Structure prediction request, 99 residues.
Amino acid sequence: MAQLVGKTTNFARQLVVQSQPKFQTFLKYAKVELTPPTPGDIPAIREGLGRLISGVRTGRWKQTTVREAWLNTLVTIEVLCWFYVGECIGKRHIVGYNV
Prediction:
């Protein structure tokens, strides 16, 4: 029994040591990517929306490469999936959706 406890303790120690660099990388990106927009970001957001609307009006969206279109499609699917997951979490079950 003591040998099992020793192996488990050693395994847990190794797991913590090996996961530290990955966890630090996660925290570095999480601090940047998961923060809500600040009041200083609002002008940039407005500018981006203005460029989007002008691009639709002038037909600039037709100049999109296949790679950009594919990435835009994947981002849209990701946003929709997160919305769906949030709805399921809010309802606390999947029942009621046509899955």
